[in-house]
Specification:
Helix content is 54%, strand content 14%. With 171 residues, the chain is α/β, with parallel strands linked by helices. The longest helix is centred in the last third of the chain and has 35 residues, at 131-165. The radius of gyration is 20 Å and the shape is elongated. Mean pLDDT is 87; it is low at 1-17.
Length: 171
């Protein structure tokens, strides 16, 4: 292999690694947070959708088909228990148990984080967030989502092939 081939391989690898992939849905009642996240994450994800109320969450889930949801935990003024975020997390898990949901809040404590993870959250981020940690967490969630989709696709393919090879056997 000559040096130009090595350069081309390295360039293609870098290009592939940095390509934007995935669709993220962000739910937060603070429009400034939504704007900041749209700008930050727009460089890392193929599609960034923001909504300011969880009441639109299920409709957005059906229309946008996100790979990840970043969900605030508190939406009502003066209430910071995190119960709203947990409620919507369970609703999302009921519709799509494989959808990674990252919860985030300015009112963090260990009990709230543990509860969120026990309820099925992929991770828990504290506001104000660290950009690197947020992006890393969301990219890990995306990788999990893509891996789950690939496993599902391969299992379906295996089932189809097994049925074709052994038509008389139940799988």
């Amino acid at each position: 292999i000559d040096i130009s081939s090595l350069f081309f391989i390295k360039f293609v690898t870098l290009e592939t690694d940095t390509m934007k992939k995935g669709r993220i849905l962000i739910v937060d009642d603070n429009k400034n947070v939504l704007s900041a996240l749209r700008i930050l994450l727009g460089g890392h994800f193929e599609e960034v959708t923001t909504i300011s109320t969880p009441n639109m969450l299920m409709t957005s889930l059906q229309e946008k088909k996100p790979d990840i949801v970043l969900l605030d935990m508190n939406f009502s003024a003066g209430i910071n228990t995190g119960n709203e975020g947990i409620y919507w997390l369970t609703q999302l898990r009921g519709v799509d148990p494989d959808l990674p949901v990252v919860l985030f809040t300015a009112y963090a404590n260990i009990e709230r984080a543990v509860r969120a993870l026990k309820e099925g959250a992929f991770d828990f981020i504290v506001k104000p967030w660290d950009n690197y940690k947020l992006i890393s967490t969301l990219q890990a969630a995306l990788q999990l989502r893509l891996s789950r989709k690939e496993v599902k696709r391969l299992r379906e393919r295996q089932k189809t092939l097994s049925s074709a090879l052994n038509p008389d056997e139940d799988i």
